Amino acid sequence: MNTSYCDSILGHYLNCWKSEPQIYIWERGPIQSLPYEFRTLEFAPSAARQMWTYATCCMSEPDDIDPVELHLFSTIKDESLIELLTALAYYYRNTTRVGLNHTVNFGKLWQGASKCEHGLVSLPYLDGPPLENLEIGNKTVKFYWLIPLTKAEVEYMKRHGVDALERKFEGSSFNYLDPCGRSVT
Fold this sequence. Notes:
Oligomer: single chain
Order of helices and strands: HEEEEHEEHEEHH
């Protein structure tokens, strides 16, 4: 049986996170500029994952040289994260490809009164290599974690590098789920 690219990506998330997502298509904006199968997935909290998880599905396409999909986490159900990932997919497809250790400007605050208006494309540390890599044919699709950052954290990373920023995260009480209570710089 020939599994579609979209089914392969969706199946990969299901295999790693062991739960069924709600599937969304953001219908505002230039959605015709996104791949036909593009979706945003919303995984509700479960016993194993006590947070909301939002993920792209088919932000990449089978012919991409370095296909990438992104996910981020939240303490609350938040439709604005569907919009955010859709906007990032548009940016990825039509402006600049993003990859590991790249930063992106959200163009708005991450959530509510958050100080985070940027994101770091990071390894999926909470899920590891089983999520990070999906082999489809002769390609490896990369699944990266989008970690919200403050402007100060982005500036720190530009000056000192991503490894220094990650050491700051590890050495602090960094809470990647808290949109309001932190900056490690």
